[in-house]
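Severity: low
Component: inverse-folding endpoint
Summary: output formatting inconsistent between runs
Steps to reproduce: submit the following C-alpha cells with default settings.
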C-alpha cells in the first residue's frame, strides 16, 4: 500500500508495515470465507459471500489507482456488507483499522475504527444470541491499544523529525558563522597587508616630496633626486599593489632558489635610509635558510612597520635591524636611538593604520611573539620571534 497519505496521517510513512498488512488482510479474508463455507456449505448465500469476498480483495488491490480516503470508504462499505452476511469477516476489521490509521489523520481514523468496533460487537452479539462481556470489551480493548500505540509512535516520529530539523538548522547556522568568521579574518589580513605595503609606500613618497620641496630652491639637484626617488617608490608601490592583489607576497621576496629575506631587508632599509637620512643598518646572524613565503612576508612587513614608526615618530638618527637565524626560531630586532615612547603612549589616530596591533596579530597567526621595550629618551627596541618547524627527519 503506497498511497500518498496526508502529512498528518498516523504512521503515514511507515513503509515497513506494508507486507505484513497485505498478507494479514488476504489471509483473514480467505480464512473467513473458508469458515463460512465449512459451517454453512454452498447454500443460497454462498455465491453472494464469495462474490463479496472477491470484491473486497479486488477493492483492496485498487489502492494504486484510487485516492486514499475513497479507497478506504469502499473497503469499509464492502466489508460492512460481508459482516452482515457472514459475521466471521469481522476479523478483517483488524487490518482495516491499520489501513484507516495509515490513510487518515488521527481523529477521522479514530472515528472509522470506532464504527467498525461497533459493527463487530453487534454482529458477534447477534451470533451468540446473548450479551457476552468479552465480545463487547475484547474488540474495544484491541482498538484502544492499536490506536494508542500508533499515536505514541506518531508522536515519537514527529519529535525525531523536529530534532532533525533543529540539527539541520544548527548546522546551517554553524556554517554561516564559520563563513562570517573567515570573512572577518580575511578582511583583517587584507587590512594588515595593505597597511604594510601601500600605506608605507605612500608615506615614503610623502617624505621624499617634502624633502624635495624644502630643497627645491637651494639644492635643485638634490630636490630632483628626491623627486626621482619618489617616482621610483611610486613604481615600486604599484608593483607591490599588483603583488598584493595577486598573492599578497612582497615583490622583494619573489626570488627563487635562495633565502630572499636578508636581501629584501637590506633593499628596504637602503631605500628608507635614502628617503629619511636616518642611518639604518642591517645585520644577519646565523645561516640564512628558506622560511617559507608566510614567515618571510610576516618578518618583512614587521620590519617595514617598525621602521615606519621609527622614521615618523622617534626622531632617531640611527636604527639597526638584526635578523637572527636560530635552530628553532627566527628573530627580528629593530632598535633605534630616538626619544622612545611615553609611558602613557597611545596611537593618536587609529584610522591611519593597524600599527603594532597589526604586527602582533600577524605574528600570532604564525605562533610568533612580539616584545616592545622603550624608555623615554633612551630609544625603542622591538623583537619579533617566529618558531621554525623542524625539517623532515629531524627531531622536534
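Observed output (run 2 of 3):
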Amino acid at each position: 500500500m503506497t498511497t500518498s497519505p496526508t502529512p498528518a496521517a498516523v504512521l503515514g510513512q511507515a513503509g515497513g508495515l506494508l507486507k505484513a498488512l497485505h498478507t494479514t488482510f488476504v489471509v483473514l479474508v480467505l480464512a473467513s470465507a473458508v469458515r463460512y463455507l465449512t459451517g454453512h456449505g454452498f447454500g443460497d448465500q454462498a455465491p453472494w459471500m464469495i462474490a463479496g469476498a472477491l470484491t473486497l480483495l479486488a477493492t483492496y488491490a485498487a489502492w494504486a489507482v484510487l485516492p486514499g480516503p475513497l479507497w478506504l470508504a469502499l473497503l469499509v462499505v464492502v466489508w460492512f456488507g460481508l459482516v452482515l452476511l457472514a459475521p466471521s469477516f469481522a476479523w478483517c476489521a483488524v487490518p482495516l483499522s491499520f489501513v484507516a490509521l495509515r490513510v487518515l489523520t488521527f481523529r477521522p481514523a479514530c472515528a472509522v475504527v470506532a464504527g467498525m468496533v461497533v459493527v463487530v460487537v453487534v454482529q458477534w452479539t447477534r451470533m451468540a444470541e446473548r450479551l457476552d462481556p468479552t465480545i463487547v470489551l475484547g474488540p474495544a480493548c484491541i482498538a484502544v491499544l492499536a490506536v494508542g500505540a500508533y499515536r505514541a509512535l506518531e508522536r515519537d516520529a514527529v519529535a525525531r523529525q523536529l530534532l532533525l530539523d533543529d540539527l539541520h538548522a544548527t548546522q546551517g547556522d554553524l556554517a554561516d558563522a564559520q563563513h562570517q568568521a573567515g570573512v572577518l579574518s580575511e578582511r583583517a589580513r587584507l587590512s594588515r597587508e595593505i597597511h604594510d605595503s601601500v600605506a608605507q609606500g605612500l608615506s615614503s613618497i610623502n617624505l621624499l616630496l617634502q624633502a624635495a620641496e624644502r630643497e627645491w630652491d637651494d639644492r635643485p639637484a638634490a630636490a630632483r633626486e628626491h623627486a626621482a626617488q619618489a617616482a621610483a617608490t611610486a613604481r615600486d608601490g604599484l608593483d607591490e599593489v599588483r603583488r598584493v592583489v595577486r598573492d599578497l607576497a612582497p615583490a622583494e621576496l619573489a626570488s627563487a632558489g635562495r633565502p630572499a629575506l636578508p636581501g629584501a631587508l637590506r633593499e628596504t632599509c637602503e631605500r628608507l635610509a635614502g628617503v629619511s637620512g636616518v642611518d639604518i643598518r642591517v645585520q644577519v646572524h646565523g645561516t640564512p635558510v628558506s622560511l617559507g613565503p608566510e614567515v618571510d612576508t610576516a618578518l618583512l612587513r614587521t620590519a617595514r612597520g617598525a621602521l615606519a614608526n621609527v622614521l615618523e615618530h622617534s626622531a632617531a638618527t640611527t636604527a639597526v635591524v638584526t635578523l637572527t637565524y636560530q635552530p628553532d626560531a627566527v628573530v627580528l630586532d629593530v632598535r633605534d636611538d630616538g626619544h622612545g615612547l611615553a609611558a602613557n603612549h597611545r596611537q593618536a589616530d587609529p584610522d591611519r593604520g593597524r600599527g603594532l596591533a597589526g604586527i602582533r596579530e600577524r605574528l600570532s597567526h604564525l605562533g610568533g611573539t612580539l616584545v616592545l621595550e622603550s624608555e623615554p629618551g633612551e630609544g625603542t627596541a622591538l623583537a619579533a620571534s617566529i618558531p621554525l618547524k623542524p625539517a623532515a627527519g629531524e627531531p622536534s
